[in-house]
Amino acid sequence: MEKSPVLAIVVPCYKEEAVLHEAHKRLSQLLNRLITEGHISPKSYILYVNDGSTDRTWDIIKDLHQNTPYACGLNLAGNVGHQNALMAGLNAVKERCDAAISIDADLQDDINVIPEMLERYREGCDIVYGVRRERKTDTFFKRTTALVFYRLMKLMGAKSVYNHADYRLMSSRAVRQLCRFRERNLYLRGLVPLIGYQTACVYYNRDKRFAGESKYPFKKMLNFAIDGITSFSVKPVRMIFWLGCIFILVAVCVTIWTLRAYFLHNTVPGWSSLMISLWLVGGAILVSLGIVGEYIGKIYIEVKDRPRYNEEELLLR
Ligand code: UDP
Ligand code: MG
């Protein structure tokens, strides 16, 4: 019989004292079931990553580690944000598991699809995305801003899976590849599709947070969205360039129109030259900015130092 895989569940936690006990109860029940049914190895575990919480989160994790099965912990020295905390967790488990699932501590994402994720994994998928079926539990505001954001990302040419947050299963080799991306502005949802490999989606309904409050206020969300777009696309810079070209085009029209006015009806002295130079200089500045931006965009791509490819198989003789 094929060996059952060691599963690591990675849970970033920031000030989650209100939800940890319940979350651990639910997750360990699930692990227990999966282990007795032989789907995963008894060595499977849950890694709680404490993202520099100032409340009792780490104490609770330590307590869970000592007194309950499956619980492991990683304490970060300070708050580094959800994406970095998740990355720290994945980095810690990459050599200690066969597959890793990342999920938020509030269990808003339905853990009952984990068996389905594992099934896809067994069928040969390296990455299984958890995708929300609908957004009924979200406020109207969050729903629309999210939609605008996904559209914008697509427009900017960044690959991303619609309605997928950071709930996903990754094989250990996919995690190892992800860890080769060394950039600091982490936007994991954009990076994971760059890995390649065979992928699949499982669909679920998202619940409300069962306790505690969201750690993603609007400002953080906005910053995250800006990070997402600017980390994956130099298109905004290119837009400056094209805007400059439009300005120059307008300048040509304005020139013709101004000269016509100048010769036909005696305009106020100075008006014509001002009109023409205004548009021409504006256009020239924008085009120059676009050109400089194009180089900066290149530097940006270089300093991110992303892996150029991911070798899946090499056949030699
Ligand atoms: N989180 C974190 N560091 C932070 C903010 C959030 O590790 O600085 C964790 C948090 O504990 C939770 C996950 O990221 O497990 C998602 O946060 P939350 O549920 O508050 O976001 P929302 O679901 O409201 O978007
Ligand atoms: Mg949440």
Automatic annotation (TrEMBL):
Entry annotated with the keyword Transport: no
Transmembrane segments: 239-259, 271-296
Membrane association type: Multi-pass membrane protein
A Pfam short name: Glycos_transf_2
Annotated localization: Membrane
Molecular function GO terms recorded: glycosyltransferase activity
This protein's GO CC annotations: plasma membrane
Protein name per Swiss-Prot or TrEMBL: Glycosyltransferase 2-like domain-containing protein
Main location per the UniProt record: membrane
Span of domain Glycosyltransferase 2-like: 9-176
PANTHER family: PROPHAGE BACTOPRENOL GLUCOSYL TRANSFERASE HOMOLOG, UNDECAPRENYL-PHOSPHATE 4-DEOXY-4-FORMAMIDO-L-ARABINOSE TRANSFERASE-RELATED
Keywords: Glycosyltransferase, Membrane, Transferase, Transmembrane, Transmembrane helix
Keyword ATP-binding among UniProt keywords: no
Domain of life of the native organism: Bacteria
